[in-house]
């Protein structure tokens, strides 16, 4: 069974930093890409950042220069370093894993709250 496990969500003050982790396991197929999406109450889920196994990255304009995505292919893990956090970054952050075969899988989400 495919498992996608996120961790690192917390309450943090504006301007602070947080690091999210995501690890995937349970599939015989190779991972093509992993990334983070977020969803605030009343809003659509949106892309935050994604990275392929080959190292190609994509970031939402709203997080460019503040968030950095990194990967550890040997561990099937991805990390999102979030700096200079703003209240508008508050959302549930979901990890998405795309396999070369078998489609997409989502984690259960981790809450990030930016508030003073």
Architecture blueprint of SSEs:
Layout: E1 3-7, E2 11-12, E3 18-25, E4 31-39, E5 46-52, E6 57-59, E7 67-72, E8 77-82, E9 91-99, E10 104-106, E11 110-114
Parallel strand pairs: 2-11
Antiparallel strand pairs: 1-3, 3-8, 4-5, 4-9, 5-6, 7-8, 9-10, 9-11
N→C terminal distance: 40 Å
> Can you count the beta strands?
11
Helix content: under 10%
Shape, please? globular
Q: What structural category arises from helix and sheet content?
A: mainly beta
Extract low-pLDDT stretches. Answer: none
N to C succession of SSEs: EEEEEEEEEEE
Mean pLDDT: 95
Structural notes for this entry:
The protein is an all-beta fold and 116 residues long. Helices cover 0% and strands 54% of the residues. It contains no helices and 11 strands. The strands form 2 sheets. Strands 2, 4, 5, 6, 9, 10 and 11 form a 7-stranded mixed β-sheet that branches. A hairpin with a 4-residue loop joins strand 9 and strand 10. It is globular. The mean pLDDT is 95.
What attributes characterize this protein structure?
mainly beta
Tell me briefly what this model is:
This protein is mainly beta and 116 residues long. It contains no helices and 11 strands.
